[in-house]
Amino acid sequence: MKISARNKLQGTITRITAGPVTSIVEIQLQGTPTITAVITNDAVSELELAEGGAACAVIKSSSVMVGVCQEGQGCGCP
User: Fold this and answer.
1) By Cβ atoms counted within 10 A, which residue in 30, 35, 55, 62 is the most buried?
2) 8-29 pLDDT, tens per residue?
3) Is residue 60 part of a domain?
């Protein structure tokens, strides 16, 4: 995954709370911090997000996006 955002934080998904249209995804970073993103349910499904899975919080401006590495491709997370 190549992206222009410079703030990429690797972590583990600790909770996914699905709503009617969007889900709240909590990502535990190294140490104590947890970052929370609100993304569409379609994005959760397309990214195949699951609790306990690795994910990358990508921060650009005032938005937080979630990305996952794919087999054989670099993630771009530290």
Assistant:
1) 55
2) 889 999 999 999 999 999 999 9
3) yes
Q: Is residue 48 part of a domain?
A: yes
- pLDDT tens digits, 32-48: 799 999 999 999 999 99
Structural domain count, the chain: 1
Sheet containing 63-67: which strands, arranged edge to edge? 34-40, 22-29, 7-18, 54-60, 63-67
The model's confidence at residue 60, banded by pLDDT at 50, 70 and 90, is confident
Does 76 map to a domain? Answer: no
CATH code, domain carrying 33: 2.40.50.100
Distance, CA of 56 to chain centre:
5
Closest listed residue to residue 75, CA positions, set 50, 59, 55, 51: 55
